[in-house]
Amino acid sequence: MRRPTLTQNAIASFPDDEMVLAVEWHEDAARKTSMHAHAAGQIIGSREGLLSVRTTSGWWIVPRTHSIWMPPHVPHAVHSHGPFRGWSIYVSQRHCEALPTLPKTLYVSSLLEELVRRAVRWDNSARTPSQRHLAQVIVDEIAELREDPLGLPNPSSGPISRVTDQILANLSDDRSINELAALGGLSARTLARLFTRETGMGMVAWRQRAKVLSAIAMLADGAPVTMIALDLGYDNVSAFIAMFRRVMGVTPGQYQSSGGLHEMRGRKSGF
Q1: Measured at the alpha carbon of residue 168, what is the angle toward residues 202 and 183, in degrees to the nearest 5?
Q2: If one looks up domain 8-144 in CATH, what number appears?
Q3: Phi/psi class of residue 246: alpha, beta or left (left: φ > 0; alpha: ψ in -120 to 50)?
Q4: How does residue 154 score in pLDDT terms, banded at 50, 70 and 90?
Q5: Of 117, 106, 96, which Cα lies nearest the Cα of 22?
């Protein structure tokens, strides 16, 4: 197994004028990290396998050919679902000004993929003019990557958080909005209004996205579609397949056999 060999101190102390550090990341089995943060920005790309990333503000899924951007100082925990092959680029804080200020799931361009393959071969000696130029191109290319919103926003207030915590604790629990509102000590109307204001989504859409993201993670772990449907509260597997296809543009079986979202770029997605 080959993991990133950069220490936290090395990541925190690399000179600003070096701009970027790149490392390849191989995992032979599932692995979880504890919540941590970097002074540098970080983008993690997936070549094979699936990552899920959690922060205090949300949860993101990172399929093959995608990446997750973490701005400087954002605490996050990473989970690789089974074998994983990918890479990380750390961007010094001074050079993150043009980069997103919030975590985002991004498509990886063929240009960035090739730049990463070159940057991971750089040694610890002083950067050459050519390497400094390529480092700037890497930062510029990250800024241009297209977002694929494979995330689930967390609410900011206690009452709404109690509702979403209950939903995520048991995605098969299909209790009504009135019952969920009671958990937060709110009326159904107030819950609906605050939920949309704090997450940017209606509750039905939020619950569906939570189920789809959970299903993607379970598909990556090799779970059968029937078992996933039952775990998510569907008595009828066909209803689950229809919901997944409505949101993602493909059925769970098509998603699983294609190896992820790369082949779906030309298809309609509800995200």
Answers
A1: 75
A2: 2.60.120.280
A3: alpha
A4: confident
A5: 117
**48, 64 Cβ separation under 8 angstroms:** yes
Q: How big, in percent rounded to 5, are the helix, strand and coil portions of the chain?
A: 45, 20, 35
pLDDT (tens digit per residue) in 63-104: 878 899 999 999 999 988 778 899 999 999 999 999 999 999
Query: What span, in angstroms and rounded, lies between the C-alpha atoms of 171 and 217?
Result: 14
Summarize pLDDT for 17-65 with one digit per residue, the tens: 679 999 998 888 878 899 999 999 999 998 888 888 999 888 898 887 8
Eight-class DSSP state of 76 = B
Structure tokens at 116: 């990463």
Cβ atoms of 20 and 116 within 8 Å: the answer is no
Cα end-to-end span (Å), the chain: 34
Encoding tokens for residue 243? 């919901």
Residue ranges per domain, the chain?
Answer: 8-144, 154-264
- Whether domain 154-264 has CATH 3.40.50.150: the reply is no
Measure the CA dihedral 220/226/227/228, to 10°. Answer: 50
- Which of 201, 194, 82 is closest to 151 using CA atoms? 201
- 178-186 CB contacts, 8 Å cutoff, 24+ apart: 184/158, 184/159, 184/160, 185/159, 186/159
